[in-house]
Specification:
Blueprint (H helix, E strand, L loop, with lengths): L3 H8 L26 E4 L2 E4 L6 H20 L6 H14 L3 E11 L7 H4 L1 H8 L7 H8 L9 H10 E2 L2 E12 L2 E11 L19 E12 H15 L3 H4 E3 L2 H4 L1
Parallel strand pairs: 2-5
Antiparallel strand pairs: 1-2, 1-8, 3-7, 4-5, 5-6, 6-7
Helix pairs in contact: 1-8, 2-3, 2-8
């Protein structure tokens, strides 16, 4: 059973109201109790293993959404680094143990290649041994060129990845191992030189173009996630239909 301290923390999370203008974004709403194995939660593209229970999927997605919304609604947060720090603090306060990670400066070594293709090797390296568990994420990125750029899930992912003067896309691979849930989180941050919208489709024009990449690992127990599930669903009930959506069916097959 969720203890009173954690319930109070979740109940009082400053997630804010639905941002103006997002009401018109028509995403394919999903049932948080029946989430697919791959989905977009705001600025995070997440993949779950087939064996993950509905409660694990729901609690992971809602934890990440809560962290995003709190960071985005914190008036003290004025930079991308501060946003990420606030985001990570919320996860840790939701019983997620941070096992390490950080940012590194990276460079593309190819030109005339779209960003969504060029970041695949960096994500594969960040996922490490979990890369096979992130196959749907990598497949989605490989096939992005063939998709409608105005697809609701792409629009949501792109819109929520823009903050301050950067676009920062997050990718998470979830694994369930012996009663523990581990999230391998990778991100790629691009400054304004890559454009203001749909950076994933930007064609790299300069060899050794730089960006920042990051990786981190979070873990918790399945029992703790199950205990938080009800409180997180209640807190975020007004936001899930806008910020959580499935990937296209053809990618989930």
């Amino acid at each position: 059973m969720l203890n009173a301290v954690h319930k109070k923390y979740i109940d009082e999370l400053p997630v804010g109201a639905l941002p103006e203008g997002l009401e018109a974004l028509e995403v394919q709403a999903v049932d948080v109790d029946k989430l697919p194995n791959a989905l977009v939660t705001g600025s995070n593209l997440i993949q779950f293993p087939s064996a993950a229970s509905p409660a694990v999927k729901s609690s992971v997605a809602l934890s990440l959404l809560a962290a995003q919304r709190v960071a985005s609604n914190d008036g003290v947060v004025q930079t991308p680094d501060q946003w990420l720090q606030r985001h990570n603090t919320v996860l840790e306060n939701l019983n997620w143990l941070h096992e390490g990670g950080g940012f590194v400066n990276s460079q593309f070594r190819s030109i005339n290649v779209a960003v969504h293709q060029a970041i695949i090797p960096f994500l594969a390296a960040a996922f490490g041994p979990a890369v096979a568990a992130g196959a749907l994420i990598l497949t989605a990125l490989k096939q992005l060129e063939e998709m409608d750029k105005s697809s609701p899930w792409i629009t949501l992912f792109d819109n929520q990845s823009r903050r301050f003067n950067v676009s920062e896309y997050q990718f998470s691979v979830v694994q369930v191992i012996d009663g523990n849930v581990q999230v391998k989180l990778a991100s790629a941050r691009f400054d304004a030189s890559y454009g203001q919208t749909q950076v994933l489709f930007f064609k790299i024009k300069q060899e050794h173009a730089s960006f920042q990449s990051a990786s981190g690992t979070y873990s918790t127990q399945t029992d703790l996630l199950a205990e938080m599930n009800g409180a997180l669903k209640a807190k975020l009930a007004g936001l899930t239909s806008t910020f959580i959506t499935s990937l296209p069916d053809d990618l989930l097959k």
